[in-house]
Specification:
With about 400 residues, the chain is an alpha/beta fold. Helix content is about 25%, strand content about 30%. The strands form 6 sheets. A 9-stranded mixed beta sheet has the order 1-2-3-11-12-14-15-17-16, sandwiched between helices. Helix 4 links the parallel strand 7 and strand 8. The radius of gyration is 20 Å and the shape is globular.
Length: about 400
């Protein structure tokens, strides 16, 4: 039995000149699930000629917590049409998403249907996921502490809705058979095969009823999943971990221990979420004498209604892989800051996610109150990363060249 999911558009472009290069080619991601198989490939094809003698590259973008608090739901509602729309929330981030061949985000809500609710048990309109897809998010991970907020039916409806929307996802499953045939999620693009794993520390004490599954952090199970991924002849394995202590800017010992364990299994890229504030990033690169790895302890909030210091924005991690002589190499890494603005428009509060380095150059864009918060977040984040990051510089927008460039 084979299921095909038609899904997300992506395109190839260079980081330094992305604005001038529009979407030249449209790719179709196909998710193929076969009974008895270990993985779920998402294949992108194009009509370009591949020269196997040349190095190939794959760019990845990791996006933090996509939250759906009550005020966000209210802001998305249009009473005149009785519909919801989040397109204006993410549209300013679309050029950033388009820097990458594959953009992956943490969906920290359920799509459980009405009644739509925010904290503490989230259920957002389907339009939230639709808008993420339109903006350029290619893949969602959904194993997190809010995955079971609306019980068994909420887990199942979230999975089925993402399937209907054609958004590849992983971390939750309708039953053991689905997990056995679709996990790990294998992303196939630009000649690379990437296995994506996803786990959470728990579900806020809510029991996950059988037969549905939410992947939880179990080192023995993770080891088995890694072995399964290796059988799929993947070039890299990524673990997206929902871990840590909320609102702490430093990773705890358990995060550090788990990161070492995951790297020891052969998972070279470890991405973290859950604390709702940013934590440090560490990267080393492949050379003739060294083996590279990346650890991002927490990306913070991508979008939320949290407004306290450190919580009103987050970071995106950008990685480049290069395949040379059949071997995948980690060749570059950087971060891009984002901040959530809540302006009043036509008498209503709305939400807009802004790339920090681009909008800090726009004179007169902010009211004074917003500018103070925006500057505070940018300063705090750069100080933390400047002090603690290893090998992961900031990628900033160059207004003169209309391009994104690593800050030296």
């Amino acid at each position: 039995m084979i299921f095909v999911r038609k899904g997300v558009s992506a395109f190839m472009l260079y980081l330094r000149n992305f604005v001038s290069m529009k979407k030249l080619l449209t790719f179709a991601f196909l998710t193929v699930v076969s009974v008895g198989a270990y993985a779920q490939p998402i294949t992108a094809t194009s009509d370009t000629t591949c020269n196997t003698a040349k190095d190939t590259t794959l760019s990845l973008l990791f996006i933090g917590d996509v939250m759906g608090h009550g005020p966000q739901i209210n802001a998305a509602y249009d009473s005149s049409t009785d519909t919801y729309s989040y397109d204006s929330v993410f549209c300013r981030m679309k050029p950033v998403f388009n820097l990458a061949d594959i953009a992956i985000a943490n969906l920290e809500v359920t799509l459980a249907g009405k009644p739509y609710t925010g904290y503490p048990q989230f259920s957002s309109p389907d339009a939230l996921a639709e808008a993420l897809k339109v903006a350029g998010v290619d893949v969602l991970v959904d194993a997190n502490n809010h995955a079971a907020d609306r019980g068994k039916s909420g887990i199942i409806r979230t999975i089925q809705t993402l399937d209907t929307l054609g958004i590849p996802h992983t971390g939750t499953f309708q039953d053991e058979a689905e997990r056995d045939t679709t996990y790990p999620l294998v992303l196939v693009k630009n000649g690379f095969r990437i296995a994506l794993l996803n786990y959470t520390y728990g579900t806020n004490g809510i029991v996950v009823p059988s037969p549905v599954i939410v992947n939880t952090i179990d080192t023995a199970q993770i080891r088995k999943d890694v072995e399964r991924a290796k059988q799929e002849n993947v070039d890299e394995i990524i673990a997206f971990m929902h871990w840590g202590i909320e609102y702490q800017n430093d990773p705890n010992r358990e995060q550090e221990r788990l990161a070492r364990y995951l790297h020891g299994l052969g998972i070279r890229i470890v991405i973290g979420s859950h604390p709702h504030v940013i934590q440090r990033m560490e990267a080393s690169y492949d050379t003739d004498s060294t083996t590279g790895s990346v650890t991002v302890y927490s990306l913070g909030n991508f979008v939320s209604n949290q407004r306290d210091r450190y919580k009103n924005g987050g970071a995106l991690a950008y990685l480049t892989l290069t395949k040379h002589n059949g071997r995948s190499n980690i060749s570059s890494a950087g971060y891009i800051l984002d901040w959530v603005q809540r302006p009043i428009q036509d008498g209503r509060r709305i939400y807009q996610v802004l790339p920090v380095s681009e909008y800090e150059q726009q004179e007169g864009y902010f009211f004074t109150s917003d500018k103070v918060l925006f500057d505070e977040f940018a300063s705090d984040s750069r100080k933390l990363y400047g002090r603690e990051n290893v090998g992961v510089p900031e990628i900033r927008f160059n207004r003169e060249t209309n391009s994104w460039e690593v800050k030296r």
